[in-house]
Amino acid sequence: MPKPAGADTLPATMPAPPIPLLDLLACPDCRAPLQRDAASLRCTGCGSGHPVREGIPFLLPQAQRGLQIEHERELEVRSHYPKGVARLLDALARDQVVLDLGSGERETDDPRVLCTDLRFTPRVDLVSDAHVLPLRDACVDLVLAGAVFEHLRDPFAAAGEIHRVLKPGGQVIADCSFVFPFHGFPASYFHASGEGLQRIFAGFRKVAVEVPPWLMPSYGLEVLLGEWLRFCKPRTEHDRRFLAAIRALGGFDARALDACFDQEHALRIAAGTCFLGLKQPRGDETVLPPPALELWHGDAALRQRYPDPAVLLPTLREDAPDTFVHWAAGEGRARSAALADWYAARPTVQKRLDPS
Ligand SMILES: [Zn+2]
User: Fold this and answer.
1) pLDDT tens for residues 93-111?
2) How far, in Å, is the centroid of ligand 1 from the Cα of 29?
3) Considering only the top CATH level, what class is 59-214+264-350?
4) Residues within 5 Å of ion ligand 1 by Cβ?
5) How would you class 90 by CB atoms within 10 Å of its CB: exposed for 0-12, middle for 13-18, buried for 19 or more?
6) Burial of 308 by CB count in 10 Å (0-12 exposed, 13-18 middle, 19+ buried)?
7) Where are the domains of the chain?
8) Rounded to two decimals, what is the model's pTM?
């Protein structure tokens, strides 16, 4: 497990001052910088004002302001990051910014992770709309969008916004419902196959399209059958026998059967699909530490071990291999003083407007 950036190193260089949240934010209407104005944020371009409640900026575009958003009963709330994502966060530097889009009930005090949702909850760092992100161009290293794309009325616009705010070399990890009932808020709009997600994220270099472990076919089947039982009103003896048969299926451990599907066939009937991709307009951009890239270019063994160093996370499978960013934060930092100094000099990110 790599140590957090800067641990156990004697900094030859002092870290730069923290990166304030305001340096990342932009007006959702015109994208100009914002400035603090008593209890609100004011746009330095179009002059629009945006409220700050309990220290949390509300940066919704004009059309969304005043909208009352209510969550429907959630089917399942994921409160933790998948293992591979959590390990990736450990390997990122202190100043690498992560956007958790549609974070819902997920909570993290990691200062680099901006949790954002359309709804104000005690857990979000920013209230915003995925279609119009209130962030500056190219300021984010990693975008996580778990169970959010099916709830977007224009997923193509949101993918365009993710592309805009990512740094060149930044990665997106987005999953979406596929064979799954209508659910959530404001609605289920577009459920996507793997092919569909590739269309939505056509502006990215594909790293993988896959079914993550928690969206395998059994989960969709369980929820579909549950919704069938919930809504179907039997009229005949035949109907009642059919519903009893569905109820009896609940006695089986369907999750155990996920092991009987390979990815190719799981992608045809999974509860959801996931796209992992890089913003690489030129084909070779990375968000890796420059001294680590230098080491990679000069070391044939490293190039062989990590042939595609820009990929931060190749898969959400439990057995995801380490990538070059893990090497840089662990072995690389121990091997190279220049790389250790680079990590030590990273500023922190301050995701609160008013850090206490
Ligand atoms: Zn503005």
Assistant:
1) 999 999 999 887 787 889 9
2) 5
3) alpha beta
4) 27, 29-30, 32, 43, 45-46
5) middle
6) exposed
7) 59-214+264-350, 217-260
8) 0.93
